[in-house]
């Protein structure tokens, strides 16, 4: 299991935590109060910086409870934290509801998951192999 060094950038920061030992992601906590206007967005700080191990990235993901109960999601989901980034993790939250949403200090606002990055190389070719799907794109399999 990779160790993730982290720095609390203020006394309002909380360590990312998993609720259960077998959870896939760690909760990220708000280090500030804020308001997300109806149909608007806001960037909320966590006051946490992490050192993602080489060969990995961290993904900032929405929390299902915020989405299902309040219409709150991570706007650029998933947000990608590259292994070379050392700044604060900030979360761009989008409010898809008709009511403003209040974020309080210490609220769980997103989840953070680690993902191993495979080493790949892009190779230019004249054509791609055939597949069952072919060129079918957005919505080609129906509703």
Structure description:
- The chain is mainly beta.
- The chain has 1 helix and 10 strands, in the order βββββαβββββ.
- The strands form 3 sheets. It has a 4-stranded antiparallel sheet with strand order 1-4-8-6. Strands 2-10-5-7 form a 4-stranded antiparallel sheet, with no helix packed on it.
- The longest helix is centred in the middle third of the chain and has 7 residues.
- The radius of gyration is 18 Å and the shape is globular.
Classified by CATH, the class is Mainly Beta
Number of distinct beta strands: 10
**What is the rounded Rg?**
18 Å
Helix count, DSSP H or I runs of 4 or more residues: 1
**Average of pLDDT:** 95
The percent range for strand residues is 35-45%
Keywords, separated by commas or semicolons:
single chain, 143 residues, mainly beta, Deoxyuridine 5'-Triphosphate Nucleotidohydrolase, Chain A, four-stranded antiparallel beta sheet
């Amino acid at each position: 299991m990779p160790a993730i060094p982290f720095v609390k950038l203020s006394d309002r920061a909380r360590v990312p935590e998993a609720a259960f030992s077998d959870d896939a992601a760690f909760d990220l906590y708000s280090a500030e109060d804020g308001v997300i206007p109806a149909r608007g967005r806001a960037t909320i700080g966590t006051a946490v910086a992490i050192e993602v191990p080489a060969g990995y990235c961290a993904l900032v993901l929405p929390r299902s409870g915020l989405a299902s109960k309040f219409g709150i999601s991570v706007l650029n989901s998933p947000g990608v934290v590259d292994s070379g980034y050392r700044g604060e993790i900030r979360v761009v939250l989008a409010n898809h509801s008709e009511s403003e949403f209040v974020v309080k200090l210490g609220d769980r606002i997103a989840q953070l998951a680690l993902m191993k990055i495979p080493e790949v190389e892009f190779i230019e070719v004249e054509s791609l192999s055939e597949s069952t799907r072919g060129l079918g794109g957005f919505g080609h399999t129906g509703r």
